[in-house]
Each structure stands twice: as structure tokens, then as C-alpha cells.
């Protein structure tokens, strides 16, 4: 069922991350929070059109969930957006911020910041085909285009095409000389630019992204913008979402009381996925961070990483790994 109040859920979201936010990770994270908005990995439009079912697989439990597209052809993106909506996703997001060489070779991602009119055309074409929100994830600049005027003009142009929601990584992107990892760390972060964007465009829904590592930090950002997107910090320590429903959304926490109880809740999914042919290592890699900092946490990861390639019973392996950990209670 398509979510009716997505802006509420956008108060906290988990970023699209290649090789990380697959459907198994999203199912796992949903056991921690019923409200956080989840994103798929970026899916290239051309790949979606040629191998759609493989990329569209998800459990309804994951909703609210958004699918991120990579591409720059308005007609192709519009066709993809229609497919995404039909598959039951709550939002379709256009990637205008990824700086990787793979994305550059396809002429999309952060390169699109230099082609505001094309982005506007893409958004307009997508919106004509769907009822779900069409959103844009971008940066505050690209290469030598780093001034406020450039950034504001990009946002204004894309907004004029009908985009009302922007997720902003508060760094510029360097398309040459920096690796994707360096692009997440080296360019200086400027949260104040994102805050200013919200002041100039109060009618827009603005989320900030970049170097946000705790729920307390997210709460501070929410004093200035509508939403916060977190990425690798959540993957490294998924348990931080255990208090999100109360701390961010003002409701009752949904997560189990302990990490071990969380893993027990995930085991039926593991058994089902393994029975359907999913390699156990694809499932267990998402669990490595759950006991970070606990006595036995390293042993937990070791048991999973060494045992998953050959274990026939994933649930039994995970329980064995859990036995190596001394756990304290919630949170």
C-alpha cells in the first residue's frame, strides 16, 4: 500500500547505498523502526527496463520505501517511474549526486548538476506518469560550480518542473581526482548551505545528508530542515534505529528490547531466503554491526563471515554466533 504521509516518514531516512541497502537489509532495518523511510540501492534506468523483476523485488513489510534511479533520458526515466509505482514503491528518486566514474560514464549522477534544464525535463516527464512523489538527491555543487547562486539556480529550475522534495548531501562533488570514498570525506561539509536553502524555499521539503552519525545529531539538524538522511553510520550500527520511532517521530519504539531478540525476529526471513536460493553470506553481511563494541562482537562477526559460505542452516549459524556475545539490554 502506497504511503499517504511520506513527509512524516522523511524526518529520518536511510540513504541508497550500493551493495548495502538491498531488500534483505531493508527488511532487517524495518524490524527496528516502522517509520524510517528506506531507500533501495541506485538502479540504472536502462538496467531496470531490461531486467526489471530482479531490481523490483521487495517485501511489503519494507514500506515506506523509495526506489532511486540513475539516468538522464527523460523518456526512459518516465517509463521507469511508471514501473516503480506499479511495483508498490512509495517514491521515485533521481540521483543527481553520485560522483563515481561508473555513473559519470553513463552521463548521470552528479554530472547532472551541470545540466539543470535536462534534470527539470527528466522530473517533468516522470511526474506526468506517476502519482507517487518524484524527488531529487543532489549535492551543493560540483567541480568548480560551488557558489550559492549556482546551487540556488539548480534547485529553483528543478522545482519549477514540479519537484518539491530534495535530499542534499552538504558537500560538493569532485568528478576528477577523488574516489567515491574521498568524495564522501574530503570536500568540506556545509550544513549551513542546506539550512539556507530551507529558508529561501520554505515550501520545499528539504533533507540534509552527510556525516550524520547519531540520532542526537539528527535531532539537531531537524531544528533547521525537514528531514535527515543517514547512510553508512546506520549500516555500521543498525541498532541506532531502535529508538528512532520515539526520538524522531514521537511515538512508541517498535524494536525488540535486545539485539539478540532482534536477530531471533530476523531468523524466519533468513530461513525463507536461504530456502529460495539466496546465499547465506548475502544475508549475514548485514548483521556484522549489530554487536559492535560488545564483548564477543568480533567473534560474532568472525563466526558469521567464516561460517556463512558453507552453512546449510543459517538460523543455527546465527544463533551460534550470538552465543559468543555478552549482551546488555535496551538500548
UniProtKB/TrEMBL annotation:
Belongs to the Dus family. DusA subfamily. Its cofactor is FMN. The keyword Secreted does not apply. The lineage of its organism: Bacteria, Pseudomonadati, Fibrobacterota, Fibrobacteria, Fibrobacterales. Its EC number is 1.3.1.91. CDD domains: DUS_like_FMN. InterPro entries: Aldolase_TIM, DUS-like_FMN-bd, DUS_fam, DusA, tRNA_hU_synthase_CS. SUPFAM superfamilies: FMN-linked oxidoreductases (SSF51395). FMN binds at residues 16-18, 68, 137, 169, 231-232. Residues 14-313 form the DUS-like FMN-binding domain. The record marks 95, 181, 184, 298, 301 as: Interacts with tRNA. The active site is at 98 (proton donor). Keywords: Flavoprotein, FMN, NADP, Nucleotide-binding, Oxidoreductase, RNA-binding, tRNA processing, tRNA-binding. GO terms for molecular function: flavin adenine dinucleotide binding; FMN binding; tRNA binding; tRNA-dihydrouridine20 synthase activity; tRNA-dihydrouridine20a synthase activity. It catalyses: 5,6-dihydrouridine(20) in tRNA + NADP(+) = uridine(20) in tRNA + NADPH + H(+); 5,6-dihydrouridine(20) in tRNA + NAD(+) = uridine(20) in tRNA + NADH + H(+); 5,6-dihydrouridine(20a) in tRNA + NAD(+) = uridine(20a) in tRNA + NADH + H(+); 5,6-dihydrouridine(20a) in tRNA + NADP(+) = uridine(20a) in tRNA + NADPH + H(+). This is tRNA-dihydrouridine(20/20a) synthase. Catalyzes the synthesis of 5,6-dihydrouridine (D), a modified base found in the D-loop of most tRNAs, via the reduction of the C5-C6 double bond in target uridines. Specifically modifies U20 and U20a in tRNAs. It is an enzyme of class 1 (oxidoreductase).
